[in-house]
Amino acid sequence: MPLNRDYIGRKAPVGEPVEITRGDIRRFAAAIGDDNPLYTDRAAAQAAGYADVVAPPTFLISASTGGGGGGFILEPELGLNFAMVVHGEEAFAFDRPVVAGDVLTLEQRIDDITAKGSNELMTLVTEVTDQAGAHVATITNTIVSRGTA
């Protein structure tokens, strides 16, 4: 069953703000195998000019696919079966780095759904703002819905 094209352009309800902690950043850095001290050592991050430890560039993908965004993709009317989903690609455009202590709001929308052979590509765009309302980043995430085209 194809994905519902009526969802193109739809924005997800904005979830609760996501508070970024040192522990979150440390665990993510360990999971990706990056031992950069800016990700784990507050003093090193401050010496480099940051307020606290810095999140690796791909850190926001975990927030954008978790409770902070994307709730609408669970709606049955969209027709997305997670058993048939694989990761396509992701891209990040930052206005500034994410640091521990940030409280981020994520607003996600379905930017496009296109057929590629027997698969469909769903592109999600997530705008990230901080507690002051300043734009932090834009995340573009494409997922592949296998066999639904």
At a glance:
The protein is α+β, with helices and mostly antiparallel strands and 149 residues long.
CATH topology: Thiol Ester Dehydrase, Chain A
Using the 3D structure, state the CATH architecture.
Roll
Return Rg in Å: 17 Å
Query: In what order do the strands lie side by side in the largest sheet?
Result: 1-3-4-5-2
Supply the number of structural domains: 1
CATH C-level class: Alpha Beta
Counted by DSSP, the helix tally is 3
Number of E strands:
5
Instruction: Characterize the overall form.
Output: elongated
Give the distance, in angstroms, between the N- and C-terminal Cα atoms.
7 Å
Structural class: alpha+beta
The CATH superfamily bears the name Hotdog Thioesterase
Helicity level, as a percent range?
10-25%
Q: What portion of residues belong to β-strands? A: 25-35%
What sequence of helices (H) and strands (E) makes up the elements? Answer: EHHHEEEE
Average pLDDT:
92
Largest sheet: 5 strands, antiparallel
Low-confidence stretches: none
If you had to describe this structure to a student in words, what would you say it looks like?
With 149 residues, the protein is an alpha+beta fold. The chain has a single domain, classed as Roll (Thiol Ester Dehydrase, Chain A). Helices cover 15% and strands 32% of the residues. The protein contains 3 helices and 5 strands. Strands 1-3-4-5-2 form a 5-stranded antiparallel β-sheet. It is elongated and about 55 Å long.
